[in-house]
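Incident log entry.

Two folding requests arrived from the same account within the same minute. Monitoring flagged them as a possible duplicate submission, but the sequences differ. Recording both here for audit purposes.

Request one:
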Amino acid sequence: DDDTFSDVFCENSKKLINVHLFALAAKYYSLSNLGVCTPLEDILEALRGGNQGTTDIKTDKFMNNKKSHEVQVMSELVDKIANYCGIKQVIDIGSGKGYLSSFLSMQYNLKVYGIDSSSSNTNGACERNRKLKKHWRAYQNQGRANLKSQRLEKANHRPVESEIKCKTINEKPLNNDSSLQSQDQVTIEVLVPSCGFTEIATSETSRQTEVDLVARTQSHGSKLSEEVLPILNVLPADAVEVFSSTQCISGELCKEEKAQRKMASLKAKASKSSESNLHFPLTSCITAETELSDIVTDLEDCMMVGLHTCGDLAANTLRIFTAKPEIKAVCSVGCCYHLLSEQFENQEDCPEEVWGFPMCQYLKDKGWHCGRNARMSACLALERVAVGQVLPTESLFYRAVLQVIIEEMYGVTKSDRHVGKTFSKSSSFIDYVRKSLKKLELDDAKLPDSCIMDYYEKYKHRMNELEAFNMLKVVLAPCIEVLILLDRLCYLKEQDNIAWSGLVKLFDPVKSPRCCAVIALKKDSC
């Protein structure tokens, strides 16, 4: 009952009078409590029809823990959606340095175009591409060398017993062949990374290689073929050479083994032909009117993704998705709400302008606006604060006092320039103020050190008030974020060509605070 929270603010002064009720109200209207999110497990279940085939890829060698977590979770979902829609092309909007793009291409064999407005990011993605290819080749060569080494040790191993306990390999097959789920799989002792990202676990049984399997008697030949050959579909196509028991015994290949060799050869050729391009980094500024076919010359049926698309880019991603028939699905995680443009923030009547908020007709009809302060609050991370990660109170205090200084001493109330991360590069408050004034192109010579410190001393006793105020902003953050996310979801619900749309919590909010994705599939893709 909304009346429960009617006593949070004073009816006359509008001041906060009940902090406890304020916190309860904020929790009540948060995304987790409203029940509007679709569980990720339900989505994956619907897309793949079961819980099998989950990848367990280690990406922390190529990116930090936060990015690794995001890329692993989102890439698996994107792959399932792409398979469900029967598409192989992915457009990664705001791709940055290509972390998601390269992983989707290498691990899931998708053709990915990463588009970013920053040429430095695109160049960084190209350089990262080069390094990843180098690692990929190295891992493949290591796998071949290990297999050859094991063959040389053939005489030193005992014959295998008639029954071999096999451990299932849970790596994602490179060719996405779902039939592998039902085939027998065998673990080899050598560590052979899959697609350059992870390693297959060793068997816990006695030291046993596929060379030992070759030494099995002819009576076990058919079982050997069933157990060993599927491993070729798990590894990169040219990581191993096909072998068989009959090769050592009679020199003749059965039909199954001939077909397997042919398939491995075709995969090896396909792998070599595509290896030069893990993904395609492109530089372009994306707007709601962007024609993707002008950027991606071979545009085909595809899906659009965005991992932490900044500001209006998240909204424009959804607009492009609904407008372009080639785009069959979208998976977008937005961020930087403070950079959203708002149609009604300044009460300007610009009907032809495309705004980041609001998107849905319902909020447009009501002339809804948040304002920059509210959007800034939406960027705060309640879950991180809840587990003990403190707010940067001192840097916020520095910034607040600086605001007073530039207003009173320079008469500046608004500027297009930004202070940025000056606090982390400053040795003291005086140093911070002087560096900030230079960034704002204001003359710091007119401001002596004593004057700067007078401002500091005047307001330092209010630092606790500032901390308390920011804690209230943190508590309110999820409510503002849910408004922005529901606006985007409602926009999709208003479209006639959408078969399904929803909000899905993808990431651990402590690791990645902007953790919710807006996902949609078009009617002709299902």
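Request two (distinct sequence, not a duplicate):
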Amino acid sequence: VHFPDVERVEWLNKVLVQAWPYFGTIMEKTFKEVVEPKIRAKNVHLKTCTFTKIHFGEKCPRINGIKAYTKEIDRRQVILDLQICYVGDCEIHMDISKFNLGVKGIQLYGTLRVILEPLLTDPPFIGAVTLFFMQKPHLEINWAGMSNLLDIPGINIMSDSLIQDLIAARLVLPNRVTVPLKKNMNIAHLRFPIPHGVIRVHLLEAENLVQKDSFLGAIRGKSDPYALLRVGTVQYRSKTVSRDLNPIWNETFEFVVHELPGQDLEVDLYDEDPDKDDFMGSLLISLVDVMNDRTVDEWFPLSKTTSGHLHLKLEWLSLVNDQENLHEDKKGLSTAILIVYLDSAFNLPKNHFEYSNGECGAKKIKNNKYLKKMEREPSSFVLLTVGNKTQKSKTCNFSKDPMWGQAFTFFVHSAHSQSLHVEIKDKDRDSALGTSVVCLSHLLKDPNMTLDQRFQLDHSSSDSFIKMKLVLRALNVEEPDPQRVKAGVSALKQGPVRVVEKGGNQQKFGSPPNPEVSKAPHVSKDSAALESLLKKDSRDNLDTNDSSAAPVPSETVAGINEAELEQNPEHRPSSALHTRAAAAPTLPVVQELRLAPSVASLGSLPSSCFELSSSNLDLHNGSEMPLGEIQLTVRYASVRQSLVVLVNGCRNLVPSSNRGVDPYVRIYLLPDRRWASRKKTSVKKKTLNPQYDEKFEFFESLEDVKKRTLDVAVKNSRPFISQERKELGKVRIDLSQEDLIKGFAQW
């Protein structure tokens, strides 16, 4: 797993700090001269609206990092992801007929994508700039004046979420803001590009979920799990499986993917309760990886929880201009996607009486107030329906020629028989201002499966039209390339050098680079089991502070011989390591510990290798030997204000007994050694090369994290009364020395 190459741009933040007062002056002028007249024109009651104070404060937005994409994309564009953080002290107050309303502080966190395209050969060299948030940004507002009421608990969540929805309607995918920089630039295809594809998610089952239901705080009951699946702003909820910690759903969901790289599949599991649903774990999957692998069918470990795995089958469907793929699916799954670019309408009637029943005009209505309302231009919105799904456009106020400029997507099951129903309505009245029905079979007559035209409106004026562009694309499941090395979700199970163990357990591990033994510090403990094996007087150095030494119950398994290293590995050609699997003869444990660098730990330089080392292991040759390696990925997520530690896996662990080991990893963020704050992976049975791929988060500020040390230990889950050594190795990472915003992934 590679975290993006996020670059810190302190120079840009310094420019923002210098320019902020001037930006504030421009915005104050804009509020007085542009925004205030627009608010007054909206409604009779807003005619007295006046901004009494506009101050944008001293604190300006910060850009915590920028990720630039140049390789994975079209050569005529540049994509930038900006991690924006704004904790502002702005104050804006306005009076509306004796009422004072205002804002005195805003907090905003989010990732803003900026697309510069097309790149040109003449000034200004960039045709247009497109802006949008990848996900809904996190927003908090401190209200002032009479709007203080909105700060009341309960109401404040509602008011903030309403504003988040307003932002989402304009600035969160699939919505975009496109600003042309060159004159006469056609930006329609930039504002509404055809989506990258569709992800079909088969939510199959889960296992070993955490128990959340309790009775009188003591007796644990079984949970009632359900899943929330999310891509961008689209969210689906699965059915709830009652009283089951190993639920089976067998449900299918489909999502349109508008932007790659950038969009992820998020899955959250909850336990349904009458009061508040309990969180049971989550999962984040990069859709770029799924697109590359085409089909992924795997068990995924859940993060932010102590146990649980989720079984998903993911299929990437590309959009093709091929009518042969449009046959109806027998399972009821989608076979195509319809993209509707809703542009504008012309000559809408002021009201439905203009065209209903001829003479039955407004004569019958005697109320003058209502007559005035009837005479003004309509405030219209559009309802678009395909099958049982209806989507609603924004409302254009007081215009008979409204301009919507929005895009909508619909899943299509049968292009030959389904239709698009369009209805234009006035927000002040229930009546329709016009309707239109377009059969999707008309699109099949065009070789590009596209219609871009004005459509005559029915039940409307004779010269009323709506302008739309309709694009139909078939969904195509491509077969994965068997020759391709998995680069995505399954990438961590790469480069298989298989070690066949006695007892049938097979392990994969990645081929390591060239070896060198690292002089790692003494961090781990020794145990009575090794004492007896080594026939030496070793001190028992168990750390009494280590509360993780609490027993971890596990099933005892009769002695399965672990794969041991081949004798004299240094005499073997290194290329053989990468090409063939070796069935290794068994050596005594002592001899294995005494061998020079182990086969797969050969080759990591001390600077890039976290080697698990053992203290006080008094070996016959007097030198310290590594006890294996652990692969960790660490970075600081600015938006979530958390340190993210991904435990990928271990390799070449040294067994503590001939019974085999059941390794797990525990993590502390020192100096905090409280049992409640420790993190622990699942236990992997009978393996020296466990693969975890489990993520943990420590919610601390970046400044605080920089002063801390990451304490990672690999332990053996052994029976309570066992004499085996519990700790297999340990490493400490000083976080003050690392660039955590950029992150690092190392063995």
